[in-house]
Amino acid sequence: MSTPHNEQVAAQEQMHDQFNDVWGNPRGWKSLTIVNHTTIGIRFMLTGLGFFLFGGLLAMLVRTQLAIPGYDFLEPDVYNQVFTMHGTVMMFLFAVPMMEGLAVYLIPKMLGARDLVFPRLSALGYWCYLFGGLILCASLLLGVAPKAGWFMYTPLSSAVHTPGPNSDFWLIGITFVEISAVSAGVELVVSILRTRAEGMSLNKMPIYAWYILVMAMMIVVGFPPLILGSILLELERAVGLPFFEVARGGDPILWQHLFWLFGHPEVYIIFLPAAGIVSTLLPVFCQRPLVGYRWVVLAILTTGFISFGLWVHHMFTVGIPQLAQAFFSAASMLVAIPTGIQVFAWIATLWVGRPLYHVPMLWLVGFLVIFVCGGLTGVMLALVPFDWQVHDTHFVVAHMHYVLVGGMFFPLLAGIYYWLPHFSGCMPSVRLGKWGFWLVFIGFNLTFLIMHWTGLMGMPRRIYTYQSGLGWDLPNLISSIGSFIMAIGIATVLLDIVLHFRFGQKATNNPWNADTLEWITHLPPSPYNFVSLPPVRNRHPLWQEPDLQARIDRGEFALTVIDHGRRETWGIEPLTGKVREIIHLPGNSWWPFMAALFIALTCLGLLSKLYWGALAASLIAVLVLLRWSWENGAHPLAAPDARVQPGEPPLHSRTCDGPGLWGMGVTLLANGALYLSLLFGWFYLWTVSPNWLVPDDPVIDQRVLLASAVLLSIAVLWQRPVLRRLRQGQGEPRTLISCFVGVALLGALHAGLLLWALLAGDLAPRATAHDAVIVVMLVYSLAHGVLASVLSALQALRVQYGYVCKRTPYEPLVVEQLWQYSLAVMWITYCSVVLFPPTFGGV
Tens digit of pLDDT for each residue in 142-165? Predict the structure, then answer.
């Protein structure tokens, strides 16, 4: 005999089954099509763990080689490859991807959303990360790994000093991996701003989301300079364009500027999400809100801003002017202020609360001790005279590990132990967890605290052996012993994590009595996170409503209808959290995997010097990406049923301000950072390079360049009134088609004139850096003009198919941003190449 309770339970199970039919993950080969953020986040973290173990093994080889003076365990060339790959793997393949993976997993759950806003972009980012990392690591197994240091300083990494493919593996592999990082950055920025729970205004966001928002914005702005530097150096090695060669007008210091424009912000890109873990866990284990929430948010924003003004902190010994040294020294010490605010907020939270010292808290306390020590040595290195004395010694190596390992690895393990029940539904071992912590803590300090001493005694970095009697014997032996103790501790932690899946005690719901929304999902979570989307009224929803999970499972809140077959979540006002539209999300797809695969084949073609094969693979990758974009917006596979329930807002593809506009804007921000880095290189070489050669006569036809810019301006102006009417719900298909076709033709003419200027000009890009930079700037504008034209032609076709019309005006507005960006770049390039030189005495 059925009862009302049994009927309610049956109804809930039926509703969950319906959601699983739409959101569920396939198995077998089709698992390559999964785009769900939970799976992608776990894949990021597991892959990051694999690369961490590989990098850790390389570290053990380095410490074994340095344990005894005169030891020949590794040959010099092999040692150079090993220590270069250790730094590269830990910085590029572990630290940033691991933090991004954790954020990809957590952010939608914390914000009360069902997924990230661009799931296929997350999947593309993961596959690019995996393939790029495998290509890079394979170089070591082939004996051709990079060996110029993880920072790849020129001219050591140039073709003259490293003639084989060693440096090419680094440049091409890292650029491939950076695509992943920037993709995840764009994804996280837009998701945090546009897909939160109803009522979750910015001042009610979990503090972790603030940290990830700033980290993601820093990735978007900070990674493109390194991408540009890698492209320029690879062009110099493969084609002979002399960007970093002094004799032909380049400058090797330009590489250092581009690298550290990325490199110093990356320290905070790694630190901020780790600090976000600290700020999230401390209130839970103290059972009270974080002290100074608004001050901490202000400190996060300030840290992200100041970090971009510190890159010369790493270049005090290269001969920069004293005024610049004083400025960057002061800026390097200034960044300690917002960091200090966060530390004081953590200490105050500990002070006013009653801390419970579970295993995650041990890692947090260890972090506070180690990171404060690393911060103190950082202030020491900000002082120019001290930096001159210890630059390129083991003191700098020790400082870097205290900041990065202490500032990232310890909070990461605290977070892993904290969220392990979320991943598995089981609790880890307390005994093994404590053993693992103490072994790592003791081993770490034994390794790197002693290394400060070694550095102060003058031991340089990047040497594969040393003579006895210099006072370095005992410290190096102690450091090597400490590194093996640390390795045993990490093995203990990994053993605990592996065993807990089989033998761990089953976790209760919200086992830590946490306050954030990720703990009201099932353990482990379902693919859709929440069967109904609750509103949020304060920063601690679980402390305010302990029974929230039961209410969500009963379907008491929003978006519980699933018979339309769409994956959907709320789209909100970024500032207030007011619901604005329903964002419908794409389902599982082969396109991300296929695109990443052909990009990987392009990289392999470049590495093997099969340039025609690389060109073919890149063209196929572009076609795959364009085919991917076809299944979007009002396409039946993207929105099989456009109806919504009474009282609900429209689908985002039926509005004029969907998340794609934000995604395009943030992507163009990254693109602009790359272009501004190129512009920086142009003006830097003009003012600094001693052999910068300015031709007496123009090297390109300035009239053709002007005509190209004018055509592009006409194209942008033509579509502006048409798109304005489209926003107002007007516009006939015939008008739209004629506009998009005409704009595409104008764009093609613009690109044709640019190509003519390139081919018909008197450019000698292999002879002078001046002409080489002009070629790169014009090719950059040419590529954007071609892409914008192709996308507008596709828009005309989509109007023909009925995917774009006055009821679905969304997509042309996204493409319009690319046209406007291309126009701005074209005119800046024209001013820089044609109008600027006469002011410096050139033509």
Answer: 999 999 999 999 999 999 999 999
Report the run of H or E that residue 185 belongs to, with start and end: helix 166-194
Instruction: Give the torsion sign (CA, 101, 102, 103, 107).
Output: positive
How would you classify the pairing of strands 426-427 and 567-572? unpaired
Residues in the chain, total:
843
Distance of alpha carbon 352 from alpha carbon 303, whole angstroms: 26
- Looking at residue 202, the DSSP 8-state letter turns out to be G
Cα separation, 190 vs 166, whole angstroms: 37
Q: First-to-last CA distance in the chain?
A: 93
Best CA proximity match to 379, nearest among 326, 336, 325, 327: 336
Q: Which tokens belong to 220?
A: 């978007």
**35, 123 contact by CB (below 8 A):** yes
CA dihedral sign of residues 258, 261, 265, 269: negative
Contact 157, 81 (CB under 8 A): no
pTM (2 d.p.): 0.96
Residue 506 exposed, middle or buried by CB count within 10 Å (0-12, 13-18, 19+): exposed
Q: Going by C-beta distance under 8 Å and a sequence separation of 6 or more, which residues neighbour residue 524? A: 422, 423, 424, 425
> Which tens digit of pLDDT belongs to each residue from 377-391?
988 888 888 988 998
Q: Given pLDDT bands bounded at 50, 70 and 90, which one contains residue 596?
A: very high
Cα(393)–Cα(564) distance, integer angstroms: 63
Pairing of strands 579-585, 567-572: antiparallel
Copy the structure tokens of residue 215.
Answer: 């980290």
Instruction: Tell me the backbone φ, ψ of residue 738, rounded to 5 degrees.
Output: -65, -40
- Look up residue 148 and give its two tokens: 């110029």
d(CA 328, CA 312): 6
Contact, 250 vs 386, CB < 8 A? no
- Alpha-carbon span 617 to 131, nearest angstrom: 15
Centre a 10 Å sphere on the Cβ of residue 764 and count the other Cβ atoms it contains.
Answer: 15
d(CA 62, CA 70): 14
For residue 321, give every residue at least 6 positions away whose Cβ sits within 8 Å of its Cβ, in sequence order, or none: none
Cα 452 from Cα 370, distance rounded (Å): 14
| Amino acid found at 239 | V
